[in-house]
Queue: 4 jobs
Job 1
Amino acid sequence: MKRRNFIKSVGVAAAAAYVGPEVFAGSGSAGTTGNVVPGVPEFPALPYAYDALEPYIDARTMEIHYDKHFRGYYNKFVAAVKGTPLEKMSLNDIFSGVSSHGGAVRNNAGGFYNHSLFWTNLGKGSKGPDSELSSALTKAFGSFDKFKEAFDNAAKTRFGSGWAWLYLKPDKSLAIGSTPNQDNTLMDVSEIKGTPLLALDVWEHAYYLKYQNRRPEYIDAFWHVVNWDEVNKRYSGAMG
Ligand code: MN3
């Protein structure tokens, strides 16, 4: 898939989180490029080179993370929904009833979605939150630094494997939290619920090669490679 199509398709997937089933049914490439299951998006290309986030996230980690871990979630997700009614459903609909779909769907649909979002959350060269998001962050957390501190804390204190999130609650206020394993804020099983805006993978596989057990150093490095353009876009999209 071309970079443009990847961005478009993940944009559609992101939009599907709050507007509908387009991620499966309406993806432009569905059915035309040899998808394993007709309604399921094809495996997305990484929107930058493995070494694009050096030195903050090293090329070898990116390669293994993308090509082994992420591909594994994707393949298992496809296998879990193939031939079931889920293959025609939006990810949003799968997540909102995930408690009834079993562990393979919960873990692998989550792993596919969370990483798809994470790749687009990363990138160099963006200028930071735009004025709309900046004011919302200040309103919710007191200041940008306090927002970062709260997000860092969520990422550092997630015990074991999981994700830290900035998300928009149904009442349209911003919140920070974390989920275990491959859960996310769209799932009915999650203690925190809303539209994901910024995700940080805190599984050891995301940082162990370069940072070993030093998760806080990886979290510090993450702030150098947040693609705020994407977060801005997701925020204004979710606000409608
Ligand atoms: Mn991961």
Job 2
Amino acid sequence: MNAPEGPGPSHVAPSVADPLDRTRFPVDEWRLVETRFDGSDLGTTESLFSVGNGYLGLRGNYSESRDAYQDGTFINGFHETWPISHAEEAYGFARIGQTIVNVPDPKVIRLYVDDEPLQVSVADLIEYERALDFRDGVLSRELLWRTPGGKRVSVRSTRMVPLEQRHLAVLTFEVTLLDQHASLAISSQLVNRQDEEVEQPTPEAELAGAAAGGGADPRKAEAFDRRVLLPRLHGADPETARIKLGYRTVQSGMTVGVVADHALETTSSYSMSVHSEDDLAKVIYRIAAEPGVPVRLTKTVAFHTAQTVPPRELIDRCERTLDRTREEGIARQYAAQRAWLDDFWSRADVEVPGQPALQQAIRWNLFAVLQASARAEGQGIAAKGVSGSGYGGHYFWDTEIYVMPFLTYTMPWAARNALRFRYSLLGNARHRARELSQKGALFPWRTINGHEASAYYAAGTAQYHIDADIAYALSQYVGATGDEEFLAREAVDIFVETARLWADLGFWRDESRRTFHIHGVTGPDEYTTVVNDNLYTNVLARFNLRRAARAVWELQRDDPDAYEALVRRTGLSVEEPDEWAEAAQAMSIPFDEFLGIHPQDAHFLEREMWDLENTPLEKRPLLLHYHPLVIYRFQVLKQADVVLALYLQGEEFTAEQKKADFDYYDPITTGDSTLSAVMQSVMAAEVGYHELALRYFMSALFVDLADRHNNTADGVHVASTGGVWSALVSGFGGFRDIGSAAGDQQWQIDPRLPDGWESLTYRVTLHGTRVRVTVRPTELELAVEHGTDPVPLCVRGEVVKLAPGAPVVLPLEHQGPRLEGEPPYPAGIQRADGTVISAIIPTGD
Ligand code: BGC
């Protein structure tokens, strides 16, 4: 897919135009459709057409394989470990590298007609269509192939990873000869890709690799130069056509079992043989195929994984999953998938009528977050979900700040699972805090197994804000669901241990008033590291401290038994919450009176500015072209930092401050991280830059669909897909939850419908009641779609008690403040001391 802005992501999409080639990807509101084969972006389309359920993910590889950027199959959390060797060691550096493993590939179904293999890249294809349907969750492909011998063959295949049965994948492959009879061979396989000798890639695959950047890129996964999966078991049953493989990883000791069942339906005569060895198991059908007689293969696959359970036992589990599936029949799986997704869309759909291209992209994004998270249970939500190996399959703050809002308001049980996963890491986080000489708990910046896996501490471990991000997501979840029981029983420990970390990490200083500071941390913006009083960190830490104090006080008041249990679990003293509240009250929030803005950190304004306006596109993203030290020296942002704080803690800032901060930071934000555009869109909308908000939204909406960052091949940018929901619901839809730290939570709506949009409809579930919000140019409609309890909402200051069966229509006089264009580049302005902030591009020439 084309990235019209050039080699790197631009500051913001130059226009709101649709960037897709619609002759290849026609508009369809419910499907992503591709109408012709293109070998130049195999990796991208593999990610875009991946199917997954948050546990298991199959990339969109062609089942014939060979033409592939990465023949990937991923299971959330299934990883190998390796010792991180730092060239220069230091105390407390991350030691255990963790990398997601490519588990045995169940997608392979090869077809031979009169001994000629079907290989999509070289085949004479009369017809081609590939489609991912968001309503039934099925990826389908239809080919009409003219074989080298001149026979026309119709090949229809489908692939589905059930949302209800998370261990399962269902694949079908149907071949029909259109003209004359022929001998067919279908070889259905399970292949260990992780350890396979690298096959000679096809020219298309090689191109795709080069297009995706090839060489060193911190965003890719580490490669292993040794065996990762130790074969423990293989088998193939000639009676039942059941094949199996079992492995244990060399270092992490994790185990995986995979079993595939086959059913062939045809009235043509055929024979079947099976074969298995360490890294391959297959079933081969030889069919004397008659024209017009379909040959239909159904392949059902089950995966089970574990920390230590022997592969033999996992294979038993797989067999039970498959036996049950066989008894129930495949039709049931399709029906269940459809029902699951019907329910999902009724909870989560966001509608933009009259804009089918946007509608399609919106649904693709929402479907992608769903595929990354729905059945993650017991694991985190990786930066690429289960769609690719980028970032090694690691979990970051992406989950809490970008994905959790979507889950909390549309699929609260999945949000709860994600929080429970963090809770399960608390022991490690306590240990890690001790390692960093702190009290409380410090969650790892990036991890799979709970240990810090970031080898680069400056942009990794130093991002202490992960603690506050988790606390924020927990608070948001409890506020939205009312799940106080989860809070009281376990999750409150997260508040306590994170608050302790902040209280201990920060320190007091006696100035004109006593202030509390946090030094030596990195905020979300990774282009400035290890700073004092990063605004985002301090603002979120303040929230964390207050929210924790409130949670403890309320527990003490309302549930003394739970409070006692908390004290026993954590050794909490009565004074601690008071200390937290005091630290929060005195938190230092950098503010420059002269410029009227919040500096990103205590020394931010002392730096000169990177001349972003004149930096050539081939030097973007900066992280791939400049040493970190060069970047760190300047005022230049990888991603929203202050601006993100303005959104998450909006109630703490005035409208004037928000505008001033947005104006200052927006032009110096590169957007080199896909986590940026969505948040810039939200805040541009709030402060009044309507057209700019829409452009940021379009950038984000097509991050993957148009491969804007040139690395969609490594997997979907899940944070951005979640952020797309936030941009729609919070940005244009104007939805906010505020006040949870102080105990006066309120759901507010102050919309910003983009010009030219006829309406925007979204849904949020509040304490079990699903509310539908429709924004139109001159009115706002609120209705309870599901549930029996009334919901209080505050629309532009007016409180509405929304009751079931009684929709409310409110007039809207405007769509918020309106500012034209975009804020000017701020270089050349004066600092408070009279010096000028100059704009520079470091070249060394
Ligand atoms: C961003 C981080 C993010 C990570 C994983 C990086 O490029 O700067 O904020 O957590 O990607 O998505």
Job 3
Amino acid sequence: MLDKIKKILHEVENFRSTDIEEIEQFRIRMLGRKGVIGEFFSEFKAVPGELKKEYGAWLNELKEKATDKILALRSALESKDNSQTVSDLSLPGETVYLGSRHPISVIQEEIIGIFSRIGYTVEVGPEIEDDWHNFSALNFPVDHPARDMQDTFFIKKNPDIMLRTHTSSVQIRVMQSHKPPIRSIFPGRVFRNEAISARSHCIFHQVEGLYIDKNVSFADLKQTLLYFSKEMFGEDTQIRLRPSYFPFTEPSAELDVSCNLCGGKGCNLCKYTGWLEILGCGMVDPNVLENCGIDSKEYTGFAFGMGIERQALLKYGVKDIRLFFENDIRFLKQFRSVLSS
Ligand code: DAH
């Protein structure tokens, strides 16, 4: 029996083929259910005990070598097949799609770029806030109806803790930790307990701006916002400020830009007014400065806050805010770059 095993081993070692059918026949003859090696294993039962160790070692070696040989011949054939598929090197390559930044990140980075070019730094604050930073220090008195302007997600166990409703809370943190002059913007995510619709969402993004120094005036605010609007929506963009109310600014205003779709003539996007509302702003209320330990007789400043989704809706002409959160690849792929290999 040992001679027969050695003979088959010799045959396995010398077997060569590039024909898949021939390799398969060889596999069946060697390793198939009624194959040669299986026969040896059946005969092995009758081998006398003292020879079992030696015979067993030979048999195992044979089985291993046959298996390895078949695998090696098959994989040599496969790699040959692959190389054959690139038969025409002049054909155009397959398109490789790269992922890309989310449109909200793109707009956020654009806004950061615009303000950093005029010396604004970027600061961030926590998304989970306390009442002081989100409301009280911003001059929202307890029980003041202005708190209703922003439907808040409170933490059940502690009504002093909430998800921030705006990035204005970061103003307080920065004024408490930095001495004026302060010139910073604060991008981030905010949360409001609102029904989700095409126009509003319970999660969205804002960028807040804050400028505190000696002799900062409303004219500085207006010029800063004009610069921003032209950079963001185009050189021909006009702005107008409408009086408004926010507890933390006095006076307060809302900024409109001329509609970048119709150039101010009136269209569906601007509801035939020629103007698009883009942000809230105003001179920082002296109470807010004092709450943060800044002398309101020495320093003045302005603040502004805008929704990033809103800027993206206007810039890209997207009609439904929910698209920014659903991560539907058919929507996102419109913002991605394509690289051809
Ligand atoms: N925090 C306001 C909001 O979420 C936006 C805002 C308005 C921010 C006026 C400001 C500001 O800094 O001065 O609706």
Job 4
Amino acid sequence: MRFIVQGNKKLEGEIEIKGSKNAATKALVASLLTDEECVLENFPQIGDAEITFDLCRAFGSEIKQDGSIVSIKTPSIKSATASALSRKNRISILALGPLLAREGKAEVPVLGGDKIGHRPVDIHLSALKSLGAEIEVSENSFIASAVDGLRGAKIHLRYPSVGATENTILAAVLAKGKTTLKNAAIEPEIIDLIKMLQNMGAIIGLGTDRTIYIEGVKKLKGVRHKIITDRNEAASFACLAVAGVKNKIKVKGAIHEHLITFLNALRRVGGEYRVEDDGIVFWRGDGLSAIELETDTHPGFMTDWQQPLTILLTQANGVSVVHETVYENRFGYIEDLNFMGANIKVFSKCLGELNCRFNGESYPHSAVISGPTPLKGRSLKVPDLRAGMAHLIAALIAEGESTIDGVEEIDRGYERVDERLNKLGADIKRV
Ligand code: EPU
């Protein structure tokens, strides 16, 4: 499937953001911890949700979807093995904890997902092992067991990995005893997971300095939970609003608290915004200026915001520097941007001051962007989900026609984004 985009249209009006992909998929896995029904509101209709439905169904979940409301119930674990499923996303490893809690054993496929770096899972595995899981890694799957059940433990993550933090929480809530998780990730999607689990009956405390305390309970119950809105959609639409000279877009449902660091960066570039009760309105200010920026774990500048902001920086006056410190290989989309007329060079040296794990390695993780450069419509192929959205934003601000192939990748994370953007005045045809 492809998009044919006529660029440089004036975009104006209101776009409502959907439920967060990276919170919704985890909420499905959390529901596996109980035999009661969980009802998830504000659930996005995206490809990654479908992939996660298949995973949960393989374990015995009954799932009903009515628009943005999903009900999921797993009365019993019919099978603790889902190794035959494809490796389309990175959620399956999170099911190990719930399956170990309910069945004492589990087998899930090794992970797939975007090609944005090596993406090892050593931190997940070592945390689960600390909780008493025995894990064997075969060519296609992770095979885990906890014959005597999981036990609380003191765990220090070597890096505040989002997935490993979620994995530890999901495994520890039904473990015997207390778990202290240090150097945990504290992204809004993790707080959303904690809120859902707390309402299911879990005991989870948030300490200062990235510490999470979990006291295992015997049983969790069903819940009705509203998924937070997607802060990546919010940032993408905000960058799109500011990148076009005449645009003014209200991003309905954008949550100020989740976007504090993003809004600071946007203001430094020259974007204007007004926070309202039900969303944030974005437009371009008097002129756009180059900035320097480093991605980081929350509350730093999120790695998934890096691509839309980089496109915006191609329209800013001067030389900008972006240092990506979360993934070693997340500038794959730059080649296409340069093909459209951008002037971006990627370097393996750390061009920033954060303590970066990629220092001294040969990963292309720093970008220097010289602007402003008008972009021209081109034929593009989507390399991964977030880069796909970057291609779409670039095509929307470019002069002329672009074709974007591999739209299925964009659909994995963004619900009918073409239809929603067309309502603002964009011209995107899906063929
Ligand atoms: N890492 C390890 N070992 C591990 C786990 C992670 O070395 O065991 C490294 C990774 O290789 C990476 C870094 O730690 O360099 C961060 O990975 P993290 O575990 O924090 O990320 P994740 O859980 O795999 C989630 C989102 C990503 C988002 C990151 C960072 C989901 C499904 N994915 O990934 O979102 O970029 O957190 O916020 O929640 C996306 O939505 O397109 C996406 C890639």
